[in-house]
Design goal:
Number of helices: 12
Largest sheet: 10 strands, antiparallel
Bound molecules: alpha-D-galactopyranose
CATH superfamily of the largest domain: alpha-galactosidase from lactobacil brevis
Oligomer: single chain
Number of domains: 3
CATH architecture of the largest domain: Distorted Sandwich
CATH class of the largest domain: Mainly Beta
């Protein structure tokens, strides 16, 4: 008997020792794409450390004896998902408060596995746990092989006994070591979205974030680029990392350079007013953070993101955008059926492919004749359109055009039947005034009844012309103020639950209407993010359609988001937002670098201008597939001087389209030199300038080698402000 007990004790001790030896064993996890890799290490204390992101470094066990030469008793080396507490003292990815008021979390490696969810995609799930509280975190990295994109998110599960509160719950953390870090990010406002800004990071913490609740882009955009070891933003050379968050609500991205000159980037949902309770057994899944790395400059980083988005993120993947006429700036609220059918006739005559009826078609007791009333009452205003929406849809279809219509289902005007019927649906804090913006309130999408209502707004609008509405423009014209939900018990869930409520409505709508084209608009480009693009086909890039402003807005937007998502329209002059007057050609040439549309009253155009529009629309159709599916090369930055130039090239490099614009008058000495980097040096290309009878490049109609076009480049005569050109290239 004693002998047996001794044997058991011996076996137990041996097992325990082997467990602790295994716990002490280092282990390496590599997350690889074709040209990049993240390396993580489970160290001898069970922590998961961040070792590398960049070009592959080969067998990860080479990190086995890696020495950072830091004092072992001084904080920690970079961690893969740093939690507040223990020895970690920098910005945390995760902060949790426990029922016993302990605010420390120390995550230890438990296990990991890799899988292949689909060809070309590898997923790594790593489980970490806090031994004291049993809080469990699964880090999921998904590596998209060909696109060199790695996405990261976490699932946080309360496996302990009592409710915990998540105070920070970032999606991802990466850590880099370079001599210099140049951050490129995109600030903006209404009518001036996605303005590109570069800044050299210094010690301390730089934050880009948003706390507007339902619109991501009218401050900063949840995306950035980071150039390493340089002070210059370079399109074609050097190491560049790009990141973007798949989330349409409050976000935060912090960039902290620590005392060892390492840069820690933590990104995810903004913890602002967002403490999230997790009951026993509950989990929270954070949105994906998208990463890409390029060692060939910012251009390649953009192309990686675009390729990944077109294949894996965008709702639209591959569906070509119809050219369109939108009624807004041509008619505003002031229309009746003949005005609209007249616009449809003119759109058809110019060769456009869709007509979109914007704001103003609804409201009976409170007709929507201005922004002051009517939102929420989605019944047709029969005074304006007595024949009905179906009549208009049929009219458009008979002319060969698709038909689309505008809604703003998340909103309500105080002057509406809805506001009177459901005051409890309005976002506000009890005892405080509900503030209006653009005369409207926000509906509380945390509430499932409101979710059903919003679903029904879309659904019932679609029923106004069954199977005849091809496009919905979904607007969202205000942000969150006085946040509060009469539905929620815990108000700090508001910001997250709103966006989850929105996504769940969109998911239901997409199940019912998979083929309807849906635009995400938010006073222009207020909701431009990869979260929205999971459900929307396109974004309304900006209410500012003025050519010169668009140069900068589109340059920034398309750095992160592919042109197949960015609506860009030709509008009237003087421009309604800026008063600026630019030539029609310039307006077409910039709008043609995205999803082309028009937004004006064609009846006000001269016969010559209409003929020109017809010509420009026809040539757009010739290269539209390149704009939408081709590789983008930014050739000349509008921030560097007098010109902006870009090109899209087909994947096989047999076709390309080049756009160039003069954006300043700079004297005749300053002619642009545009090197066509995207071409194949071993092919020959014919080059033809479109939409003009007086070509601006002496080589028009000739054939040049790719090598010549890349290394010599073209020098078109674009010397006066708003001169512009589009060239079509075909390999011989
Ligand atoms: C917002 C949009 C515009 C237009 C108006 C209608 O401002 O950005 O394009 O739809 O609303 O009210």
């Amino acid at each position: 008997m004693i002998h047996h007990i001794r044997l058991l004790i011996f076996i137990f001790i041996a097992f325990a020792l082997s467990l602790s030896a295994r716990a002490a064993e280092k282990l390496f996890i590599s997350i690889n794409t074709e040209n990049t890799s993240i390396v993580l290490e489970k160290n001898d204390t069970g922590d998961l450390m961040f070792m590398h992101y960049g070009l592959p470094t080969g067998d990860a066990s080479q990190y086995g004896n890696y020495n950072s030469y830091r004092r072992v008793d001084y904080g920690t080396d970079p961690m893969a998902y740093p939690a507040r507490g223990g020895r970690y003292y920098n910005e945390p990815a995760l902060s949790v408060k426990y029922a016993d008021t302990d605010a420390n979390t120390e995550l230890k490696y438990v296990s990991h596995k890799t899988s292949v969810p689909q060809k070309g995609v590898e997923q790594t799930d790593i489980i970490l746990r806090d031994p004291k509280t049993a809080l469990e975190v699964t880090l999921t990295y998904t590596a998209y092989q060909k696109e060199d994109v790695i996405t990261a998110h976490t699932e946080i599960t309360n496996k302990g006994g009592k409710t915990v509160t998540l105070e920070n719950y970032a999606s991802s953390c990466i850590n880099l070591k370079a001599g210099k870090y140049l951050l490129t990010h995109f600030h903006g406002a209404w009518a001036g979205e996605m303005q590109t800004e570069h800044e050299q990071l210094t010690h301390g913490t730089k934050i880009i974030d948003n706390k507007m609740g339902v619109r991501t882009t009218h401050t900063e955009n949840p995306s950035f680029m980071l150039s390493l070891d340089t002070e210059d933003f370079d399109e074609n050379h050097g190491e560049v990392i790009a990141g973007a968050l798949v989330w349409s609500g409050n976000y935060k991205m912090s960039f902290q350079i620590d005392e060892f000159d390492r840069l820690n980037i933590i990104s995810g949902i903004n913890p602002h007013a967002c403490a999230y309770p997790l009951k026993k057994g509950e989990s929270f899944i954070t949105p994906d953070m998208i990463w890409t790395y390029s060692c060939a400059g910012a251009g390649q980083a953009s192309r990686n993101l675009h390729d990944w988005a077109r294949k894996y993120d965008l709702y639209s993947h591959g569906r070509m955008a119809p050219t369109l006429l939108n009624s807004w700036e041509g008619a505003y609220f002031d229309f009746t059926t003949p005005v609209l059918t007249g616009m449809i006739d003119d759109a058809a005559a110019m060769g456009l492919e869709m007509f979109v009826l914007d704001d103003g078609w609804f409201g009976t007791d409170y007709p929507r004749n201005s922004s002051r009333q009517g939102l929420g009452d989605w019944q047709l205003n029969t005074k304006k359109i007595p024949e009905g929406i179906e009549y208009l849809a049929d009219y458009a279809h008979k002319k060969g055009l698709k038909f689309g219509i505008w809604i703003e289902p998340e909103m309500v005007n105080p002057k509406s039947n809805l506001a009177k019927k459901h005051p409890e649906w309005i976002v506000k804090s009890p005892g405080r005034e509900a503030t209006t913006t653009r005369n409207q309130w926000l509906l509380d999408l945390c509430n499932p009844e409101v979710q059903d209502f919003v679903f029904n707004v879309f659904d019932e609008t679609m029923q106004l012309a069954v199977n005849k509405i091809d496009y919905i423009k979904w607007d969202c014209n205000r942000h969150v103020e006085s946040f509060g939900s009469s539905f929620l018990r815990e108000q700090s869930k508001f910001y997250v639950d709103y966006i989850q409520g929105l996504y769940s409505v969109l998911k239901r709508l997409r199940a019912k209407y998979p083929d309807v084209i849906v635009q995400s608009c938010s006073s222009g480009g207020g909701r431009v993010d990869y979260g929205a693009l999971n459900y929307f086909d396109e974004v309304w890039t900006s209410d500012n359609t003025e050519g010169l402003s668009r140069v900068f807005i589109q340059y920034g937007t398309n750095m992160i988001y592919p042109a197949c998502t960015t609506g860009s329209h030709v509008s009237d002059v003087p421009n309604h937002q800026t008063n600026n007057v630019t030539p029609l050609k310039f307006r077409f040439d910039i709008a043609s670098a995205g999803r082309l549309g028009m937004e004006l009253q064609p009846k006000k155009m001269s016969a010559d201008d209409r003929a020109y529009a017809q010509r420009a629309i026809a040539s757009y159709k010739r290269f539209r597939d390149l704009v939408e599916q081709g590789d983008l090369y930014r050739l000349v930055s509008p921030y560097d001087g007098d010109h902006y130039a870009l090109m899209y090239v087909s994947k096989d490099k047999t076709r390309a389209v080049v756009f160039a614009y003069c954006i300043k008058y700079q004297g005749r000495a300053r002619k642009p030199l545009i090197r066509l980097y995207g071409l194949d040096k071993d092919k020959s290309y014919s080059i033809t300038e479109l939409n003009t009878d007086t070509p601006s490049f002496w080589g028009d109609g000739q054939t040049f080698s790719g090598q010549w076009l890349i290394n010599q480049g073209i020098n078109p005569q674009l010397v006066k402000i708003y001169d512009s050109g589009i060239w079509y290239l075909e390999a011989k």
